[in-house]
Amino acid sequence: MASLIRSSLILAFARATNLALLFLSPILLVRLLDPATFGQYREFIAWAMITIAIAGFSISTNLLYFIPRDPQNANRYVSHTNWFSLIASALAFALLWAFRDRIHANASFDLVLPLATYAFLYLNLAYLDTYWIATRQPKYVFYYSTARTIIRLAAVIGTAWVTGSIEAIVVSLVLVEAVRLISVLIISQRIGLLSFQFDRRLIPEQLRFILPLGLATSLAQVHQYIGQLVISTQLGVLALAIYSVASYKAPVIRIVRGAISDAIFPEMVRRAAGRAVDGLRLWKRGTIGYAFLILPSFMLLFWYADVLIPLVFTQQYADAVPIFRILLLVMPLEAIELNTPLRAINRTPDMLAGNALLLGTNVLCIVAFFRWLPEQAILGPAVGTVAGYVAQLCFLGSRILRWYEIRLADLMKWRSLGAIWLCTIGVAAVLAAGEYVPMPELARMLVFGTLYGGAYLVAIRLFRLEEVETLFFKLRRRLARAPA
User: Fold this and answer.
1) By three-state DSSP, how is residue 83 classified?
2) For 3-33, what is each residue's pLDDT tens digit?
3) Which residue, 326, 288, 263, 306, is CA-closest to 421?
4) Given a cut of 50, is residue 285 above it in pLDDT?
Protein backbone atom coordinates (compact mmCIF):
# COMPACT_ATOMS: atom_id res chain seq x y z
CA MET A 1 0.00 0.00 0.00
CA ALA A 2 2.88 2.38 0.79
CA SER A 3 4.36 1.89 -2.68
CA LEU A 4 0.99 2.61 -4.27
CA ILE A 5 0.68 5.84 -2.33
CA ARG A 6 4.21 6.88 -3.29
CA SER A 7 3.41 6.17 -6.94
CA SER A 8 0.20 8.15 -6.66
CA LEU A 9 2.05 11.09 -5.15
CA ILE A 10 4.61 11.08 -7.95
CA LEU A 11 1.88 10.91 -10.58
CA ALA A 12 -0.12 13.64 -8.84
CA PHE A 13 2.97 15.86 -8.71
CA ALA A 14 3.62 15.23 -12.40
CA ARG A 15 0.00 16.08 -13.19
CA ALA A 16 0.15 19.22 -11.08
CA THR A 17 3.38 20.35 -12.73
CA ASN A 18 1.99 19.82 -16.22
CA LEU A 19 -1.27 21.58 -15.44
CA ALA A 20 0.62 24.50 -13.93
CA LEU A 21 2.77 24.78 -17.06
CA LEU A 22 -0.26 24.54 -19.34
CA PHE A 23 -2.03 27.17 -17.25
CA LEU A 24 0.82 29.56 -18.04
CA SER A 25 0.23 29.22 -21.76
CA PRO A 26 -2.94 31.36 -22.10
CA ILE A 27 -1.65 33.89 -19.56
CA LEU A 28 1.36 34.54 -21.82
CA LEU A 29 -0.44 34.14 -25.15
CA VAL A 30 -3.08 36.79 -24.42
CA ARG A 31 -0.20 39.25 -23.96
CA LEU A 32 1.63 38.20 -27.12
CA LEU A 33 -1.32 37.81 -29.50
CA ASP A 34 -4.25 40.01 -30.37
CA PRO A 35 -7.68 38.56 -29.42
CA ALA A 36 -8.43 37.44 -33.00
CA THR A 37 -5.18 35.45 -33.30
CA PHE A 38 -5.59 34.01 -29.81
CA GLY A 39 -9.11 32.95 -30.82
CA GLN A 40 -7.70 31.25 -33.93
CA TYR A 41 -5.21 29.36 -31.76
CA ARG A 42 -8.01 28.17 -29.49
CA GLU A 43 -10.02 27.27 -32.61
CA PHE A 44 -7.25 24.96 -33.80
CA ILE A 45 -6.93 23.41 -30.32
CA ALA A 46 -10.70 22.78 -30.17
CA TRP A 47 -10.70 21.03 -33.56
CA ALA A 48 -7.60 19.05 -32.61
CA MET A 49 -8.86 17.91 -29.19
CA ILE A 50 -12.22 16.78 -30.54
CA THR A 51 -10.49 14.87 -33.36
CA ILE A 52 -8.05 13.26 -30.92
CA ALA A 53 -10.85 12.44 -28.46
CA ILE A 54 -12.91 10.66 -31.10
CA ALA A 55 -10.07 8.89 -32.92
CA GLY A 56 -7.83 8.28 -29.91
CA PHE A 57 -10.43 6.32 -27.96
CA SER A 58 -8.01 6.22 -24.98
CA ILE A 59 -6.52 3.15 -26.63
CA SER A 60 -3.31 3.11 -24.61
CA THR A 61 -5.15 2.86 -21.27
CA ASN A 62 -5.70 -0.85 -21.92
CA LEU A 63 -2.05 -1.37 -20.93
CA LEU A 64 -2.89 -0.38 -17.35
CA TYR A 65 -5.09 -3.48 -17.15
CA PHE A 66 -3.35 -6.09 -19.31
CA ILE A 67 0.34 -5.61 -18.49
CA PRO A 68 -0.01 -6.01 -14.69
CA ARG A 69 -2.25 -9.02 -15.24
CA ASP A 70 -0.09 -10.68 -17.91
CA PRO A 71 3.42 -9.15 -17.83
CA GLN A 72 5.06 -11.83 -19.96
CA ASN A 73 3.01 -10.62 -22.96
CA ALA A 74 3.74 -6.92 -22.39
CA ASN A 75 5.48 -6.50 -25.76
CA ARG A 76 2.51 -7.99 -27.59
CA TYR A 77 0.03 -5.72 -25.80
CA VAL A 78 2.17 -2.69 -26.64
CA SER A 79 2.48 -3.80 -30.25
CA HIS A 80 -1.28 -4.26 -30.61
CA THR A 81 -1.88 -0.89 -28.97
CA ASN A 82 0.40 0.82 -31.48
CA TRP A 83 -1.32 -0.93 -34.39
CA PHE A 84 -4.75 0.11 -33.12
CA SER A 85 -3.53 3.71 -32.79
CA LEU A 86 -2.05 3.68 -36.28
CA ILE A 87 -5.30 2.46 -37.83
CA ALA A 88 -7.41 4.98 -35.86
CA SER A 89 -5.11 7.90 -36.70
CA ALA A 90 -5.02 6.98 -40.39
CA LEU A 91 -8.83 6.90 -40.47
CA ALA A 92 -8.95 10.28 -38.73
CA PHE A 93 -6.53 11.78 -41.27
CA ALA A 94 -8.57 10.36 -44.17
CA LEU A 95 -11.88 11.67 -42.81
CA LEU A 96 -10.51 15.14 -42.12
CA TRP A 97 -9.13 15.31 -45.63
CA ALA A 98 -12.36 13.99 -47.16
CA PHE A 99 -14.34 16.76 -45.41
CA ARG A 100 -11.68 19.44 -45.83
CA ASP A 101 -13.91 21.78 -47.84
CA ARG A 102 -16.68 21.73 -45.23
CA ILE A 103 -14.21 22.21 -42.36
CA HIS A 104 -12.50 25.05 -44.20
CA ALA A 105 -15.87 26.76 -44.74
CA ASN A 106 -16.44 26.80 -40.97
CA ALA A 107 -12.91 27.77 -39.91
CA SER A 108 -11.25 31.18 -39.82
CA PHE A 109 -8.09 29.97 -41.59
CA ASP A 110 -6.90 26.98 -43.61
CA LEU A 111 -6.25 24.49 -40.80
CA VAL A 112 -7.17 21.13 -42.33
CA LEU A 113 -3.73 19.85 -43.38
CA PRO A 114 -1.91 20.89 -40.18
CA LEU A 115 -4.87 19.61 -38.13
CA ALA A 116 -4.84 16.19 -39.81
CA THR A 117 -1.04 15.96 -39.53
CA TYR A 118 -1.03 17.05 -35.89
CA ALA A 119 -3.73 14.53 -34.92
CA PHE A 120 -1.94 11.72 -36.77
CA LEU A 121 1.37 12.42 -35.02
CA TYR A 122 -0.27 12.98 -31.61
CA LEU A 123 -2.14 9.66 -31.65
CA ASN A 124 0.73 7.41 -32.70
CA LEU A 125 3.19 5.86 -30.22
CA ALA A 126 1.24 7.49 -27.38
CA TYR A 127 1.73 4.58 -25.01
CA LEU A 128 4.88 5.36 -22.99
CA ASP A 129 3.29 7.02 -19.98
CA THR A 130 0.66 4.30 -19.51
CA TYR A 131 3.31 1.59 -20.02
CA TRP A 132 5.48 3.11 -17.29
CA ILE A 133 2.52 3.40 -14.93
CA ALA A 134 1.55 -0.22 -15.63
CA THR A 135 5.11 -1.37 -14.89
CA ARG A 136 5.37 0.77 -11.71
CA GLN A 137 7.89 3.28 -13.02
CA PRO A 138 6.10 6.57 -12.25
CA LYS A 139 9.29 8.64 -12.12
CA TYR A 140 9.71 8.17 -15.88
CA VAL A 141 6.17 9.42 -16.40
CA PHE A 142 7.15 12.57 -14.54
CA TYR A 143 10.28 13.10 -16.65
CA TYR A 144 8.57 12.34 -19.95
CA SER A 145 5.35 14.30 -19.43
CA THR A 146 7.09 17.32 -17.92
CA ALA A 147 9.68 17.49 -20.71
CA ARG A 148 6.94 17.17 -23.32
CA THR A 149 4.90 19.97 -21.74
CA ILE A 150 7.89 22.31 -21.40
CA ILE A 151 8.98 21.78 -25.02
CA ARG A 152 5.45 22.32 -26.30
CA LEU A 153 4.98 25.45 -24.20
CA ALA A 154 8.35 26.85 -25.27
CA ALA A 155 7.59 26.22 -28.93
CA VAL A 156 4.16 27.88 -28.83
CA ILE A 157 5.20 30.85 -26.70
CA GLY A 158 8.47 31.36 -28.59
CA THR A 159 6.76 31.26 -31.98
CA ALA A 160 4.01 33.62 -30.80
CA TRP A 161 6.62 36.04 -29.47
CA VAL A 162 8.75 36.02 -32.62
CA THR A 163 6.07 35.87 -35.33
CA GLY A 164 2.60 36.50 -33.87
CA SER A 165 1.34 34.31 -36.72
CA ILE A 166 -1.27 31.60 -36.22
CA GLU A 167 0.13 29.60 -39.15
CA ALA A 168 3.60 29.58 -37.60
CA ILE A 169 2.21 28.58 -34.18
CA VAL A 170 0.31 25.66 -35.69
CA VAL A 171 3.43 24.50 -37.58
CA SER A 172 5.38 24.63 -34.30
CA LEU A 173 2.81 22.33 -32.67
CA VAL A 174 3.13 19.86 -35.55
CA LEU A 175 6.94 19.92 -35.30
CA VAL A 176 6.84 19.29 -31.54
CA GLU A 177 4.70 16.19 -32.10
CA ALA A 178 7.06 15.01 -34.83
CA VAL A 179 10.01 15.34 -32.41
CA ARG A 180 8.03 13.45 -29.74
CA LEU A 181 7.27 10.64 -32.18
CA ILE A 182 10.94 10.26 -33.13
CA SER A 183 11.96 10.38 -29.45
CA VAL A 184 9.48 7.64 -28.53
CA LEU A 185 10.77 5.49 -31.39
CA ILE A 186 14.30 5.79 -30.02
CA ILE A 187 13.21 5.09 -26.43
CA SER A 188 11.10 2.12 -27.55
CA GLN A 189 14.05 0.66 -29.43
CA ARG A 190 16.34 1.00 -26.43
CA ILE A 191 13.95 -0.61 -23.95
CA GLY A 192 13.01 -3.38 -26.36
CA LEU A 193 9.39 -2.39 -27.02
CA LEU A 194 9.64 -1.55 -30.72
CA SER A 195 8.00 -4.61 -32.24
CA PHE A 196 5.26 -5.40 -34.72
CA GLN A 197 3.93 -8.59 -33.22
CA PHE A 198 0.43 -9.98 -33.64
CA ASP A 199 -1.23 -12.49 -31.37
CA ARG A 200 -4.75 -13.31 -32.49
CA ARG A 201 -5.58 -14.79 -29.08
CA LEU A 202 -5.00 -11.49 -27.30
CA ILE A 203 -6.51 -8.99 -29.75
CA PRO A 204 -10.24 -9.76 -29.14
CA GLU A 205 -9.82 -9.39 -25.38
CA GLN A 206 -7.99 -6.09 -25.80
CA LEU A 207 -10.71 -4.76 -28.08
CA ARG A 208 -13.46 -5.79 -25.66
CA PHE A 209 -11.70 -3.76 -22.99
CA ILE A 210 -10.93 -0.75 -25.20
CA LEU A 211 -14.29 -0.20 -26.91
CA PRO A 212 -16.63 0.61 -23.98
CA LEU A 213 -14.08 2.54 -21.92
CA GLY A 214 -12.76 4.31 -25.00
CA LEU A 215 -16.22 5.41 -26.01
CA ALA A 216 -16.96 6.68 -22.50
CA THR A 217 -13.71 8.65 -22.38
CA SER A 218 -14.23 10.06 -25.88
CA LEU A 219 -17.69 11.32 -24.96
CA ALA A 220 -16.33 13.05 -21.85
CA GLN A 221 -13.52 14.71 -23.81
CA VAL A 222 -15.82 15.83 -26.63
CA HIS A 223 -18.04 17.36 -23.94
CA GLN A 224 -15.12 19.55 -22.85
CA TYR A 225 -14.55 21.06 -26.30
CA ILE A 226 -17.88 20.89 -28.16
CA GLY A 227 -18.96 24.28 -26.80
CA GLN A 228 -15.76 25.96 -27.97
CA LEU A 229 -16.15 24.48 -31.44
CA VAL A 230 -19.76 25.67 -31.71
CA ILE A 231 -18.84 29.18 -30.56
CA SER A 232 -15.98 29.28 -33.08
CA THR A 233 -18.13 28.23 -36.03
CA GLN A 234 -21.24 30.24 -35.09
CA LEU A 235 -19.98 33.34 -33.26
CA GLY A 236 -16.41 33.69 -34.52
CA VAL A 237 -12.92 33.60 -33.08
CA LEU A 238 -13.27 36.77 -31.01
CA ALA A 239 -16.15 35.21 -29.07
CA LEU A 240 -14.10 32.02 -28.77
CA ALA A 241 -11.19 33.99 -27.30
CA ILE A 242 -13.49 35.31 -24.56
CA TYR A 243 -15.01 31.88 -23.86
CA SER A 244 -11.60 30.18 -23.82
CA VAL A 245 -10.35 32.56 -21.13
CA ALA A 246 -13.50 31.89 -19.10
CA SER A 247 -12.96 28.13 -19.35
CA TYR A 248 -9.53 28.28 -17.72
CA LYS A 249 -10.51 27.30 -14.21
CA ALA A 250 -7.71 26.85 -11.70
CA PRO A 251 -6.48 23.24 -12.04
CA VAL A 252 -6.81 22.58 -8.30
CA ILE A 253 -9.86 20.31 -8.74
CA ARG A 254 -8.05 17.98 -11.14
CA ILE A 255 -4.92 17.88 -9.02
CA VAL A 256 -6.77 17.04 -5.81
CA ARG A 257 -9.18 14.57 -7.40
CA GLY A 258 -6.43 12.81 -9.30
CA ALA A 259 -4.18 12.48 -6.26
CA ILE A 260 -6.90 11.11 -3.98
CA SER A 261 -8.44 8.83 -6.64
CA ASP A 262 -5.09 7.30 -7.55
CA ALA A 263 -4.45 6.59 -3.88
CA ILE A 264 -7.80 5.09 -2.92
CA PHE A 265 -8.92 3.28 -6.09
CA PRO A 266 -6.70 0.16 -5.75
CA GLU A 267 -7.74 -0.21 -2.13
CA MET A 268 -11.40 0.25 -3.13
CA VAL A 269 -11.11 -2.60 -5.62
CA ARG A 270 -9.53 -4.85 -2.97
CA ARG A 271 -12.23 -4.10 -0.41
CA ALA A 272 -15.03 -4.35 -2.98
CA ALA A 273 -13.85 -7.90 -3.75
CA GLY A 274 -14.93 -8.81 -0.22
CA ARG A 275 -17.88 -6.54 0.43
CA ALA A 276 -18.76 -3.71 -1.96
CA VAL A 277 -19.90 -1.43 0.86
CA ASP A 278 -16.42 -1.61 2.41
CA GLY A 279 -14.94 -0.05 -0.70
CA LEU A 280 -17.75 2.50 -0.77
CA ARG A 281 -16.95 3.55 2.79
CA LEU A 282 -13.39 4.39 1.78
CA TRP A 283 -14.63 6.38 -1.22
CA LYS A 284 -16.99 8.42 0.96
CA ARG A 285 -14.08 9.47 3.15
CA GLY A 286 -12.13 10.48 0.05
CA THR A 287 -15.06 12.57 -1.15
CA ILE A 288 -15.05 14.56 2.09
CA GLY A 289 -11.36 15.18 1.46
CA TYR A 290 -12.23 16.56 -1.98
CA ALA A 291 -14.92 18.82 -0.59
CA PHE A 292 -12.78 20.13 2.27
CA LEU A 293 -10.20 21.45 -0.21
CA ILE A 294 -12.36 22.32 -3.20
CA LEU A 295 -15.35 24.23 -1.78
CA PRO A 296 -13.43 27.13 -0.18
CA SER A 297 -11.33 27.40 -3.37
CA PHE A 298 -14.56 27.63 -5.36
CA MET A 299 -15.87 30.39 -3.09
CA LEU A 300 -12.71 32.51 -3.42
CA LEU A 301 -12.56 32.14 -7.20
CA PHE A 302 -16.26 32.93 -7.59
CA TRP A 303 -16.13 35.97 -5.30
CA TYR A 304 -13.04 37.55 -6.83
CA ALA A 305 -13.59 36.55 -10.47
CA ASP A 306 -13.99 40.19 -11.51
CA VAL A 307 -10.53 40.92 -10.06
CA LEU A 308 -8.76 37.75 -11.19
CA ILE A 309 -9.78 37.65 -14.87
CA PRO A 310 -8.55 41.18 -15.77
CA LEU A 311 -5.46 40.68 -13.62
CA VAL A 312 -4.46 37.33 -15.12
CA PHE A 313 -5.70 37.74 -18.70
CA THR A 314 -5.70 41.56 -19.11
CA GLN A 315 -8.63 43.98 -19.15
CA GLN A 316 -9.61 43.18 -22.74
CA TYR A 317 -10.98 39.83 -21.53
CA ALA A 318 -13.13 41.25 -18.72
CA ASP A 319 -16.27 40.11 -20.59
CA ALA A 320 -15.28 36.54 -19.69
CA VAL A 321 -16.19 37.06 -16.01
CA PRO A 322 -19.90 36.01 -16.18
CA ILE A 323 -19.03 32.89 -18.20
CA PHE A 324 -16.18 32.10 -15.82
CA ARG A 325 -18.56 32.23 -12.85
CA ILE A 326 -21.05 29.91 -14.55
CA LEU A 327 -18.32 27.39 -15.36
CA LEU A 328 -17.01 27.58 -11.80
CA LEU A 329 -20.24 25.92 -10.67
CA VAL A 330 -18.76 22.71 -12.03
CA MET A 331 -16.17 22.71 -9.21
CA PRO A 332 -18.54 21.74 -6.35
CA LEU A 333 -20.25 19.26 -8.69
CA GLU A 334 -16.94 17.62 -9.59
CA ALA A 335 -16.10 17.36 -5.90
CA ILE A 336 -18.75 14.61 -5.73
CA GLU A 337 -16.99 12.13 -8.01
CA LEU A 338 -19.27 9.16 -8.71
CA ASN A 339 -17.34 7.24 -11.37
CA THR A 340 -14.89 5.60 -8.98
CA PRO A 341 -17.47 3.48 -7.06
CA LEU A 342 -18.84 2.14 -10.34
CA ARG A 343 -15.37 1.50 -11.74
CA ALA A 344 -14.46 -0.41 -8.57
CA ILE A 345 -17.22 -2.96 -9.28
CA ASN A 346 -16.62 -2.95 -13.06
CA ARG A 347 -19.86 -1.17 -14.01
CA THR A 348 -18.35 0.53 -17.08
CA PRO A 349 -21.64 0.51 -19.07
CA ASP A 350 -23.12 2.89 -16.49
CA MET A 351 -20.09 5.17 -16.84
CA LEU A 352 -20.59 5.16 -20.61
CA ALA A 353 -24.28 6.00 -20.23
CA GLY A 354 -23.42 8.77 -17.77
CA ASN A 355 -20.96 10.37 -20.18
CA ALA A 356 -23.48 10.11 -23.02
CA LEU A 357 -26.03 11.88 -20.83
CA LEU A 358 -23.41 14.51 -19.95
CA LEU A 359 -22.69 15.29 -23.61
CA GLY A 360 -26.33 15.06 -24.69
CA THR A 361 -27.52 17.51 -22.03
CA ASN A 362 -24.75 19.91 -22.98
CA VAL A 363 -25.67 19.80 -26.67
CA LEU A 364 -29.39 20.33 -25.92
CA CYS A 365 -28.60 23.44 -23.88
CA ILE A 366 -26.35 24.81 -26.62
CA VAL A 367 -29.06 24.28 -29.24
CA ALA A 368 -31.70 25.88 -26.99
CA PHE A 369 -29.60 29.00 -26.40
CA PHE A 370 -28.68 29.45 -30.06
CA ARG A 371 -32.30 28.99 -31.15
CA TRP A 372 -34.30 30.83 -28.49
CA LEU A 373 -31.75 33.10 -26.78
CA PRO A 374 -29.42 34.15 -29.60
CA GLU A 375 -28.28 37.31 -27.79
CA GLN A 376 -27.02 35.15 -24.91
CA ALA A 377 -25.77 32.31 -27.12
CA ILE A 378 -22.22 32.52 -25.80
CA LEU A 379 -23.56 31.44 -22.39
CA GLY A 380 -25.12 28.27 -23.84
CA PRO A 381 -22.05 26.01 -23.66
CA ALA A 382 -21.30 27.15 -20.10
CA VAL A 383 -24.86 26.49 -18.92
CA GLY A 384 -24.85 23.21 -20.85
CA THR A 385 -21.64 22.12 -19.13
CA VAL A 386 -23.13 22.70 -15.68
CA ALA A 387 -26.47 21.13 -16.58
CA GLY A 388 -24.66 18.11 -18.03
CA TYR A 389 -22.78 17.51 -14.79
CA VAL A 390 -26.00 17.77 -12.78
CA ALA A 391 -27.75 15.23 -15.03
CA GLN A 392 -24.75 12.90 -14.90
CA LEU A 393 -24.53 13.10 -11.10
CA CYS A 394 -28.20 12.21 -10.70
CA PHE A 395 -27.89 9.24 -13.06
CA LEU A 396 -24.66 7.86 -11.60
CA GLY A 397 -25.98 8.34 -8.08
CA SER A 398 -29.04 6.24 -8.92
CA ARG A 399 -26.84 3.48 -10.34
CA ILE A 400 -24.67 3.41 -7.21
CA LEU A 401 -27.79 3.10 -5.05
CA ARG A 402 -28.89 0.14 -7.14
CA TRP A 403 -25.63 -1.80 -7.45
CA TYR A 404 -24.50 -1.24 -3.87
CA GLU A 405 -28.05 -1.82 -2.57
CA ILE A 406 -28.04 1.22 -0.30
CA ARG A 407 -30.36 4.11 0.45
CA LEU A 408 -29.78 7.73 -0.55
CA ALA A 409 -28.98 8.51 3.09
CA ASP A 410 -26.05 6.07 2.86
CA LEU A 411 -24.64 7.38 -0.40
CA MET A 412 -22.60 10.18 1.14
CA LYS A 413 -21.49 11.40 4.55
CA TRP A 414 -24.16 14.07 4.31
CA ARG A 415 -23.53 15.57 7.73
CA SER A 416 -19.84 16.10 7.01
CA LEU A 417 -20.57 17.49 3.56
CA GLY A 418 -23.20 19.82 5.00
CA ALA A 419 -20.73 21.05 7.64
CA ILE A 420 -18.18 21.89 4.95
CA TRP A 421 -20.80 23.78 2.93
CA LEU A 422 -21.95 25.63 6.06
CA CYS A 423 -18.41 26.77 6.79
CA THR A 424 -17.75 27.65 3.16
CA ILE A 425 -20.82 29.89 2.89
CA GLY A 426 -20.97 31.17 6.46
CA VAL A 427 -17.37 32.36 6.56
CA ALA A 428 -18.01 34.27 3.31
CA ALA A 429 -19.20 37.04 5.64
CA VAL A 430 -15.49 37.89 5.87
CA LEU A 431 -15.40 38.46 2.10
CA ALA A 432 -18.58 40.54 2.26
CA ALA A 433 -17.11 42.71 5.02
CA GLY A 434 -14.06 43.31 2.87
CA GLU A 435 -16.18 45.02 0.23
CA TYR A 436 -16.80 47.91 2.66
CA VAL A 437 -13.11 48.53 3.34
CA PRO A 438 -11.64 51.28 1.12
CA MET A 439 -8.55 49.73 -0.45
CA PRO A 440 -7.29 48.67 -3.92
CA GLU A 441 -9.05 45.62 -5.36
CA LEU A 442 -5.92 43.48 -5.53
CA ALA A 443 -4.99 44.28 -1.91
CA ARG A 444 -8.56 43.53 -0.81
CA MET A 445 -8.47 40.14 -2.53
CA LEU A 446 -5.14 39.21 -0.93
CA VAL A 447 -5.98 40.44 2.57
CA PHE A 448 -9.56 39.23 2.87
CA GLY A 449 -8.92 36.06 0.88
CA THR A 450 -6.27 35.13 3.44
CA LEU A 451 -8.60 36.04 6.31
CA TYR A 452 -11.32 33.90 4.73
CA GLY A 453 -8.97 30.91 4.52
CA GLY A 454 -7.98 31.25 8.17
CA ALA A 455 -11.56 31.67 9.34
CA TYR A 456 -12.62 28.64 7.28
CA LEU A 457 -9.99 26.43 8.93
CA VAL A 458 -11.01 27.59 12.39
CA ALA A 459 -14.70 27.02 11.65
CA ILE A 460 -14.23 23.57 10.14
CA ARG A 461 -12.24 22.38 13.17
CA LEU A 462 -15.27 23.07 15.37
CA PHE A 463 -17.15 20.21 13.68
CA ARG A 464 -14.40 17.66 14.42
CA LEU A 465 -14.82 15.88 11.10
CA GLU A 466 -12.87 12.62 11.04
CA GLU A 467 -11.25 13.21 7.64
CA VAL A 468 -10.22 16.77 8.45
CA GLU A 469 -8.85 15.84 11.87
CA THR A 470 -6.82 13.03 10.32
CA LEU A 471 -5.35 15.46 7.81
CA PHE A 472 -4.38 17.93 10.55
CA PHE A 473 -2.91 15.15 12.68
CA LYS A 474 -0.70 13.94 9.83
CA LEU A 475 0.33 17.51 9.04
CA ARG A 476 1.34 18.16 12.67
CA ARG A 477 3.29 14.92 12.79
CA ARG A 478 5.11 15.76 9.58
CA LEU A 479 6.00 19.24 10.88
CA ALA A 480 7.20 17.77 14.16
CA ARG A 481 9.59 15.48 12.28
CA ALA A 482 10.90 18.32 10.12
CA PRO A 483 14.46 19.39 10.99
CA ALA A 484 14.77 22.70 12.81
Assistant:
1) helix
2) 444 544 455 555 555 555 567 788 999 999 9
3) 288
4) yes
